[in-house]
Amino acid sequence: MKTKTAKIIIPAAVVVTALLIVFFIKSNPPEARRFGSAPKAAISVSVLEIVPQSYQVMIDSYGTVKPRTQSLLVAQASGQIIDVSDEFREGGFFEKGDVLLKLDDRDHQAEVKSAQANLLTAEQSLLEEKARGQQALTDWKRLGGSSQASSLVLREPQLAAAQAQVLSAQAALEKAELDLERTKVTAPYAGRILSRSVDLGQVVSNNTQLATIYAIDSVEIRLPIKNKDLSFVNLPEQYRDGAKNQAGSLVKFSSDLVGEQTWQGQLARTEGAIDENAQQLYVVAKIDDPYKSTASNQYPIKIGQYIKAQIAGKTVQNALIIPNSTIYQGTYVYVVEGDALKRKDVTFAWQNANQAMIKTGLKANDKLVITPLGQVSSGTKVSILGEEPKEKKPKGMRPSREQLEQKAKELGISVEELIKKRRAAKQGDKA
Fold it and tell me: Taking the C-alpha atoms of 394, 396, 398 and 403 in order, what is their torsion angle to the nearest 10 degrees?
């Protein structure tokens, strides 16, 4: 009995279970999902709003210090050096007219005395010849000469010869005195000793090189200017008739040879030819009085010193300036428009190592991305750092009773009147 009952119940339970499974499957059909593209992740970036500004172009250059005037100091007399100035050394300063060297002048003093004696002799001969001429004229009149006496009778040739002897003796004396004066070697201008070639006790002759000197009133620096920068520089030019167009740009020089050193200078002239090797134009800047003491006890500038130059160029109005770090591959930048990136190709009116002046591609109030970006495409969603995100109102959601009551209270009407106005507004939008 029990066996028959079990045989009936078990199959029935299996059937019921199968029916339940079928019903469950039909009631919960599997949803077919399509694989779409993953939503793009938003990138947080910092931006710089581009504002037109008055911008002075600063042009970087470099050069070495050269003396404005450099010359050789040579002996103009001969003799032994018997005295040397304390400033007659490399780097020594001197003023115009300072005695740098003294030569033994005893020979020259003797030559001066000999020339003086010769002059006295010539002057005496001239006096004697004048007396002879006067006596000849007296004799001619005493002998009854009726006509004018000839020049030979009056000894005029002899008188002219005597006068010539006096002039020659005077010239010889002046030469001897000049040679004596030149035994004192004096400075032709205020300057500095670059190098010296002689020392105490040395015997020199005429035209012996004594030293190389240079003027200290100013120094010059030859600066290359890139072709793209020429239009932004005030180039000092002069013309054949002597006219000049304008004063040159101011220049700030700096060096770290001995600490931080700075000097102020100005463009003095523009060279007349393009450098064939570099295909660049060179200008010459000048620093006035570079060896004066300063409040900071800055070391004086050195001849041959390498220094950097920053030339103050023209001022551009309403310039759009961006950092070079925001430029990719030298041709494009990224800006934020709405909530997305946009790539913009740009060209430059001017550019240095740090900044660029935009010619085309950007406009005022553009939001330039300053955050470094990798491989991103235009249209990528972004958020701006420090900017509050905009709240989006969910669509299709009705305000609660409390919200309606609050709004109606603000407007001074009942809730029912507010509901009517909202319905009318919706119908108007649909129409």
Answer: 20
Q: How many CB atoms lie within 10 A of CB 177?
A: 16
CA pair distance 144, 42, nearest whole angstrom: 137
201: tokens are 């006790």
**Type of residue found at 303:** I
Q: What is the mean pLDDT of each run of 10 residues along the chain (431 residues)?
A: 55 61 57 47 84 93 94 93 94 94 93 92 86 73 68 74 89 92 94 94 93 94 92 87 80 90 92 87 93 81 93 93 92 90 93 92 92 85 74 57 72 75 68 51
Q: Which H or E run includes 133? A: helix 106-142
H helix count then E strand count, the chain: 5, 23
CA separation for the pair 147, 169 (Å, rounded):
37
**Inter-residue contact 381 to 43 (CB < 8 Å):** yes
Contact indicator for 107, 191 with CB cutoff of 8 Å? no
Which three-class secondary structure state does DSSP give residue 107? Answer: helix
Q: Is 373 helix (H, G, I), strand (E, B) or coil?
A: coil
The token pair at 428 is 């108007």
Within a 10 A sphere around the Cβ of 208, how many other Cβ atoms?
16
| Three-class DSSP labels, 28-86 | CCCCCCCCCCCCCCCEEECEEECCCEEEEEEEEEEEEEEECCEEEEECCCCEEEEEECC
Domains assigned to the chain: 77-214 (2.40.50.100), 217-315 (no CATH), 320-384 (2.40.420.20)
Instruction: Collapse the DSSP code of 275 into the 3-class scheme (helix H, G, I; strand E, B; otherwise coil) and give the result.
Output: strand
